[in-house]
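Page 42, continued from yesterday. The earlier attempt failed because a stray header line got pasted into the input along with the sequence. Redoing it now with the clean sequence only.
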Amino acid sequence: MVSKTTEKELEIAIEKQLTGTCLEAQKGVADHGDLPFSSNHGYQLGLPQDFNARYAVDSQCFWAFLEHTQPKELEKLQKHGGDWQLKVLERFDRLIKKYGLLHLLKKGLSIDDANFQLMYPAPLASSSEKVKQNFADNIFSSTRQVRYSLSNTLEEIDLVLFINGLPFATLELKNPWTGQSARYHGQKQYREDRDINQPLLQFGRCLVHMAVDTDEIYMTTKLAGSSTFFLPFNKGHNYGAGNPPNPNGHKSAYLWQEVFSKDSVANIIQHFVRLDGSSKEPLDKRSLFFPRYHQLDVVRKLVAHASQNGVGQTYLIQHSAGSGKSNSITWAAYQLIEVYPANTEKPLFDSVIVVTDRRLLDRQLRENIKDFSEVKNIVAPAFKSSELKSALEQGKKIIITTIQKFPFIIDGIADLSDKRFAVIIDEAHSSQSGSAHDNMNRTMGKTEQIEEAVVDVQDKILQAMESRRMRGNASYFAFTATPKNTTLEKFGVKQADGSFEPFHLYSMKQAIEEGFILDVLANYTTYKSYYEIQKSIADNPLFDSAKAQKKLRSFVERHQQTIAIKAEIMLDHFIPQVVNSKKMKGKAKGMVITQNIEAAIRYYQAINRLLNERGNPFKVVIAFSGTKEVDGIEYSEAQMNGFAENETRDTFDKDEYRLLIVANKYLTGFDQPNLCAMYVDKKLQWVLAVQALSRLNRAAPKWGKKNRRFIHSGFL
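This time it went through. Structure tokens are written below.
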């Protein structure tokens, strides 16, 4: 069979999958019955003339749904007389401009004494037949070539998908076979050729806008002209970006074959899409989150596996920085509450315990659960066994604790053998300071004094699990970007050859290729290579070899002098190449990684002396835990910086602070998008090397930070 390669054929392929037919077949113009489609999703075939551009609704489906499902509520309005249909549309228009479509789909529409459901939620396994029938009464529809503009009535969007007449997705379709791609042409069309002031394209009135071709998919929830930011909605291929080959059709076919099924769309609306911020804020100041494909995929696979295999499982979710782990964990926590084993009416887990050191995740969980759940106050903290028991007695479904208290939680789980738990371990940001390490040691019964050391949270978690009474009444879900072999063996899936793989993977390679993090090693330079390059570049023909020899000879001199010379080398690069060159619109920052706390203190002193000699062009921050005596003087982070230790992160974010000096603190879990240079005077290897270098990999296109990085190493 000859491949259909035009944009129109792609429209037909999607429409046939959704509805089982197409406009051409209905009109008798063309017969596409020879196309190899699976059973359709039961969408209705929408007609362009039914679209009301003023209110951005499909009038035929909107009124058909209300008349079929809620006639008594309509009668309440009809009794008052007047143009009751216009009254409904005007009320709908006012509320959607204020709260957005997501709010109305979940909360419904109230007009006088009438209350309308605009979407019936998908049923649970334990739901009644009435709930199941209500969901079946939802009208999903698909309309091609929608004329959406009131000002230019000939402008069309390729495809719009509706639920009960309300648009939840728009699609601009492209075909690489005709020289058009979603990556460029589809996004460009949304940015430059679509009037975002028209109702359909106003923020919040539609949940997602997608640029789609036969190979790739990109999405956005907010059209903002030339500033519109698209995210990939691709599966990934060969650990990188894109999509894998599809032997049965287009690479992107999973979008209309899987994601746009009725159950899938309802699940996304109910359990994934969320609107950040307060309802008191203007709608256009808020953020609408739609899951990327890997986030949708991992949560659904975790829920399905837990439902089929019951409690007592372990899962390793290896998601790189830039994967959106906070949202993935939030969605997983909420949905694991509602996991039902097959043929049972009791949830699999009594409670979900989230183990994290991210304060923001605590707040995010509370806010998101409040939006998702009709049940109030179901999130609670627990820092010891008694609090865990108390939270369960109070009916708390999501319990948040810290990495340091994890051993106590294991004890509590063992004591509550009649309860079942899902334990989500967020390792990613958990080792920012030595204090975390000390606290975990104390809970493990270790009291020896240890200078700030690299906190290996994965080892501590495994030690806690091995040293405690482990019961089969809990499943463990470990999220990490860089699992060690021991973590893989404990939480991973055993392969036929005896090796272990993560349950779900979003690789660093994919994150780099999709632009969420940067390849920091692309600009890695040793101090020796740096000076060789400096000698040869055109703008420095009179390289001072005597000065270089003097600096290099200093490496064999005593320690204090060596640090002073190293500091000078760093500033000789950082000031002209980063600060004075106005990188990242003048906001670029750097990090100095030292061997230990004493070295960090000496670097701080040396760099400040040099900056003082150069007129103090910027300020420096130091970060370390506890206190340290150097040359008979006791130092602390707060005393050296001049502000409280808990203010270091926020203070460094200010424009006047440009260098951060550390030993181990902030080597993991520290996100500073303006960080673009790193000076390493420390041997980094294995997981720590990946985590430390990842401090540089956050993309920040807002400040022009796309792929320029500098790592200056080789001082040892």
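Notes: The chain is about 40% helix and 20% strand.
Reminder to self: strip header lines before submitting.
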